[in-house]
Every structure is written in structure tokens, then in C-alpha cells.
């Protein structure tokens, strides 16, 4: 047997004793709400009798209750769908976590590849720089060699010209010697 609580309240100027399971504060709050609704009805139409005002207040309270119940049912239905889908959402979350882990691993692999590519790039750039320096040295040597070849070609040309001159002179000398020899030979006859 539960202990019932007795609470004295005033509604529409009348005193009532309410016996129930609710706390005294709760019952007084309900009585104040009902009293306010009845006063609201009498303030709107002062020709209403006390029972008519109470009936209209009860009708308004019932309307609010029905609307609240309808909204509660709608909210329960909205809340039910996510709860029913909870296990599939958890599965989907697990799948997405696995994908995320795979992508993280792939991202780290790609980062490592990028670091290695940068290192290789730097090595190639250093190697390229040394090749450029070697090419510059070879180009300088080539220019020097070309200059030397030009000088040598000029020298060869000069020597060939000199040789031609010497040959002409030699031919003239030989001609002269031949002529003198022929003269000597003629004189001996």
C-alpha cells in the first residue's frame, strides 16, 4: 500500500483537497495552471458561468494535450528511425574507419615516395650542376683547341707558302745549275 499525499488547492475560487501520488508542488502547479486557464476564459467572456468557463478551459487543456501527444508521437517516430539504423550506422562507421586507415597508410606511403623523389631530384640537380661545370670546362678547352688549330692551320699555310717559295727558288737554282752544267758540257765538246 502506497502512501497518498493530500494537497489543498484553490481553483476558480473554490478549495479542493487532492489526494494522489504526485508531490505537493506538482499538484499545486497543476491547480495553478487549470485556475489560469479558467481565468483566461472568464477574461475573454465575462458572461460565462463558472461551469462553462471550467468546461472551455478543460476543452483548451484537452486540445493542448492532444497536440502535445501528436507531437510526442511524431518525435518518437523520428527518434525511432535512427535507433533502428544504429547497428547499420555502426557498421558503416567501421567501414569508413577502415577506409580512413587505408587512406592514412597510402598517404604516408605517398609522403615517403615524395621525400624519396625530392632526394633523388636533389641528387640529379647536383649531378646536373657538375655536368654543367664539366661542359663549361670542355667548351673552354674546345675554344682553346679551336684557337690553337686555327693558329696551326695558319702556320701550316705560311709553311706551305714558304715551301712553295723555296721550291720555286730551288727550281730556279736547279735550272741555273742545269744551265751552267749544260754550258760546261758544251764547252768541253
Please describe what this structure looks like.
- The chain is mainly α.
- It has a domain at 5-84.
- Helix content is 84%, strand content 7%.
- The chain has 3 helices and 2 strands.
- It has a two-stranded antiparallel ribbon with strand order 1-2.
- Strand 1 (5-11) and strand 2 form a beta hairpin.
- The longest helix is centred in the C-terminal third of the chain and has 103 residues, at 86-188.
- It is rod-shaped.
- The N and C termini lie far apart (185 Å).
Shape: rod-shaped
Q: Radius of gyration from the CA trace? A: 62 Å
Work out the helicity level: over 70%
Helix-strand string: EEHHH
Largest sheet: 2 strands, antiparallel
Annotation field: number of helices: 3
Low-confidence stretches: none
Strand order across the largest sheet: 1-2
Number of strands: 2
Give average pLDDT, whole number.
91
Pairing-aware structural class of the strands and helices? mainly alpha
- Report the β-strand fraction as a percent range: 5-15%
Amino-to-carboxy terminus distance:
185 Å
Any key phrases for this structure?
3 helices, 189 residues, 84% helix, single chain, mainly alpha, two-stranded antiparallel sheet
Please describe the topology of this protein:
Layout (H helix, E strand, L loop, with lengths): L4 E7 L2 E7 L3 H21 L5 H35 L1 H103 L1
Antiparallel strand pairs: 1-2
Amino acid at each position: 500500500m502506497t502512501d497518498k499525499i493530500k494537497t489543498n488547492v484553490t481553483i476558480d475560487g473554490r478549495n479542493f483537497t487532492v489526494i494522489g501520488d504526485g508531490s505537493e508542488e506538482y499538484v499545486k502547479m497543476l491547480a495553478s495552471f487549470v485556475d489560469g486557464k479558467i481565468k483566461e476564459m472568464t477574461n475573454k467572456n465575462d458572461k460565462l458561468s463558472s461551469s462553462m468557463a471550467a468546461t472551455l478551459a478543460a476543452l483548451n487543456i484537452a486540445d493542448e494535450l492532444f497536440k502535445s501527444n501528436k507531437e510526442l508521437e511524431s518525435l518518437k517516430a523520428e527518434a525511432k528511425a535512427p535507433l533502428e539504423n544504429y547497428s547499420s550506422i555502426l557498421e558503416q562507421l567501421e567501414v569508413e574507419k577502415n577506409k580512413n586507415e587505408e587512406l592514412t597508410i597510402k598517404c604516408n606511403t605517398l609522403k615517403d615516395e615524395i621525400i624519396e623523389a625530392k632526394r633523388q631530384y636533389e641528387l640529379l640537380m647536383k649531378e646536373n650542376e657538375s655536368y654543367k661545370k664539366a661542359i663549361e670546362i670542355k667548351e673552354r678547352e674546345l675554344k682553346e683547341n679551336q684557337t690553337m688549330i686555327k693558329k696551326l692551320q695558319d702556320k701550316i699555310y705560311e709553311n706551305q707558302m714558304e715551301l712553295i717559295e723555296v721550291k720555286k727558288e730551288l727550281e730556279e737554282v736547279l735550272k741555273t745549275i742545269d744551265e751552267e752544267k749544260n754550258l760546261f758540257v758544251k764547252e768541253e765538246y
